[in-house]
Specification:
This protein has 16 helices and 15 strands. It is an alpha/beta fold and about 500 residues long. The strands form 3 sheets. Strands 10-11-12-13-15 form a 5-stranded mixed barrel. Strands 2-1-3-8 form a 4-stranded mixed beta sheet. Strands 4-7-5-6 form a 4-stranded mixed beta sheet. β12 (about 410-415), α14 and β13 form a beta-alpha-beta unit. It is globular, with a radius of gyration of 23 Å. The N and C termini lie far apart (about 50 Å).
């Protein structure tokens, strides 16, 4: 019997994490392409087009699909008869694979894991530890699922325990309606039913690595209760009209996955975990014959989509001339190409700016009449001005918005997903505007960034404030100076009653 070597598992995990950073699974590309073809809302269709163009660019350029290269989720099915030469714990071995995967010079991946969730939240610097789960199974091989899960979708995970007579579909649909667009739809919903709290969530997470087959299921029809449930949730969620990036549209989910397990007679645990438009996972098996190998998908899997037509219809905005008249002219749903000076800043930078304002200290950057971009980019390589630099979820900045707008004179914010009531009120009060870039199109967005230099808070790493010079960066107006939001009007316009089964 062959020996499965520790070094082969490490190398396979490292290579797998690199592979999924720039290759969408082919089934995802096919499902997104089909959704793009049938989408009726021009804004949502354009968003999906950017996701697909970005995906193809990443496959060709071998650079990350999303700036949030995720926490490393590693699920191991360990054959009880497997022979290994392991000297370290499985966690240590998988952490080493993660470390090597994220620190590749030719394609460095953003380290997002912080080692102390309670205190200073210091970044580990290499994205370890990985999130490891293990099953002991029959056989003499080691099967591994490697996935990269971004914070935007992971933050929308939900759990409940229903009464045994409760409706899983009702709870899932009602919950998805409250999630907003921070999970970057269209994506996949993973649903775990049964077991207990931790088992239901593990089932939901595992289901996200299953093949996308909703189109096939709809063609042949359901053959089990679980498949009935999948179709019901799929049709009802899409009928909500949330659409790509929450802009309103025909497709919110590409597939719904359901896994179940026996449970207590008094319980019906249900876990819900969405996967975003940066769905990233790969599966491999080690049998002692060496490390896993990964075959790149065929570039013809991606549709040839040109963005020139949409760009020709966009309004060009000079970020160095954001007058009250210019900002006041923006309308929700309007497509823009912005050029000029753009500052970056996320949670940590906003928190530090507020602390400086409280102490009466001048800020290190003058934001009066300027725009800020909520982004934590990937490090640049070769001749790049910046690495993949897509938007982060903007609601995390909501609690800072009123103070920043009031005390700095900031005029425009760019991020992703909706803003909450307090932020909408602050935007209207200060006659500012909020724009959205497409989550899941980070490499495409980065090509519009021609220069980037850190100007403040460099100790915050990817959360430092950068000064960017952008040319024709594509964005959509989400909130105007009166507080009107496309994330409210868009889904409302596309909401429909699902066709009964």
């Amino acid at each position: 019997m062959h020996i499965i070597r520790e070094d082969d598992l490490i190398a396979s995990i490292a290579e797998g994490l690199q592979y999924i950073s720039y290759f969408h699974p082919p089934d995802f590309v096919r499902a997104m392409s089909a959704a793009w073809e049938r989408e009726e809302n021009p804004g949502a269709k354009q968003a999906m087009a950017q996701i697909l163009v970005n995906s193809r660019m990443c496959a060709l350029g071998r650079r990350p699909i999303c700036q949030d290269t995720g926490s490393a989720n590693i699920h191991v099915k360990y054959g009880v008869e497997a022979k290994t030469d392991f000297k370290r714990s499985l966690q240590e071995i998988c952490d080493e694979g993660t470390r090597q995967g994220y620190l590749r010079d030719e394609n460095p991946l953003r380290a997002s894991v912080v080692v102390d969730p309670f205190g200073k939240r210091r970044n580990s610097g290499d994205n370890t530890p990985c999130m490891l789960t293990v099953e002991m199974v029959a056989g003499d091989t080691i099967e591994v699922e490697v996935a990269a899960k971004g914070g935007g979708s992971e933050n929308k995970s939900k759990f409940t325990t229903l009464n045994p007579s409760g409706s899983v579909a009702d709870w899932v649909v009602q919950t998805v309606e409250t999630l907003g667009a921070g999970w970057c739809p269209p994506g996949i919903l993973g649903v775990g039913v049964g077991g207990n709290a931790d088992k239901a969530m593990a089932l939901a997470k595992q289901s996200l690595s299953e093949p996308i087959d909703m189109a096939e299921l709809l063609r042949r029809g359901p053959s089990s209760t679980a498949e009935d449930l999948r179709i019901e949730i799929y049709e009802r969620v899409n009928a909500l009209g949330i659409g790509a990036q929450g802009l309103g549209g025909v497709t919110t989910v590409l597939d719904v996955k359901v896994k179940s397990f026996p449970t207590h007679a008094a319980s019906l645990p249900v876990g819900l975990i969405p996967n975003c438009a940066a769905t990233r996972h790969v599966h491999f098996t080690l049998d002692g014959s060496g490390p896993a190998s990964f075959t790149p998908p065929d570039v013809t899997d991606w549709p040839e989509i040109l963005l020139d037509q949409a760009s020709a219809q966009a309004t060009r905005i000079d970020l160095d001339n954001l007058t009250d008249e210019v900002v006041g002219s923006l309308t929700p749903g309007q497509t823009l190409l912005v050029s000029g000076t753009l500052y970056t800043g996320r949670d940590a930078a906003h928190k530090r700016m507020i602390e400086m304002l409280d102490r009466g200290e001048p800020l290190p950057v003058d934001l009066k009449g300027r725009a800020i971009y909520y982004v934590g980019p990937v490090d640049a390589v070769r001749d790049e001005a910046i690495g993949p630099a897509g938007p982060t979820t903007s609601t995390r900045m909501d609690k800072f918005t009123d103070r920043i707008l009031a005390d700095t004179g900031l005029k425009v914010m760019i991020g992703k997903a909706e803003r909450g009531p307090a932020a909408l009120e602050a935007i209207a009060k200060h006659k500012a505007a909020y724009l959205v870039a497409v989550g899941g199109a980070a490499y495409l967005v980065s090509k519009a960034i021609k220069e980037a230099k850190p100007v403040a808070f460099q100790d915050l790493g990817m959360e430092a404030i950068y000064e960017l010079r952008v040319e024709d960066m594509p964005v959509t107006v989400a909130v105007d100076t009166n507080g009107n939001s496309i994330h409210k009007t868009g889904p409302a316009a596309w909401r429909r009653t699902p066709v009964p089964a």
